[in-house]
Amino acid sequence: MQDIRNIDDIKQMVNSFYAKVRQDDFIGPIFNEQIQDRWEVHLEKMYGFWQTVLLDVRAYSGSPFPPHARLPIQKEHFDRWMTIFTQNIDEQFAGPIADEAKWRAEKMAEMFNYKIEYFRNANQKPLS
């Protein structure tokens, strides 16, 4: 198995991951309801995001948290997202960049979960 090396690998990683997410009984309905018919736009955004994070190519700008702030999700949803993400990477890639992708995803899931819980508990409106 090879490591994640270029935009084609990023697209393979993103497309295969979201194909699994969309079919998942637990988190699929949340993604499908939120994204609806905008999957192509979402996937393009994810290509840019992961290309920026993993390959140091400035292909994404913006703040990834606000679109997630009001979703009806909890730690269990992030755990399932992480399980699918990790399995998807491990099925296709091996190497330091693949490991970095899993580490970055885990840190993002932890941060998003923490921030969502903070805003819920503080009864505040999240940043948008």
From TrEMBL:
GO molecular function terms noted in the UniProt entry: heme binding; metal ion binding; oxygen binding
The keyword Membrane appears for this protein: no
Cited Pfam families: Bac_globin
Keywords: Heme, Iron, Metal-binding, Transport
InterPro entries according to UniProt: Globin-like_sf (IPR009050), Globin/Proto (IPR012292), Hemoglobin_trunc (IPR001486)
Residues that hold heme according to the record: H68
Signal peptide per UniProt: none
Protein name: Globin
Organism in which the protein naturally occurs: Flavobacterium limnosediminis JC2902
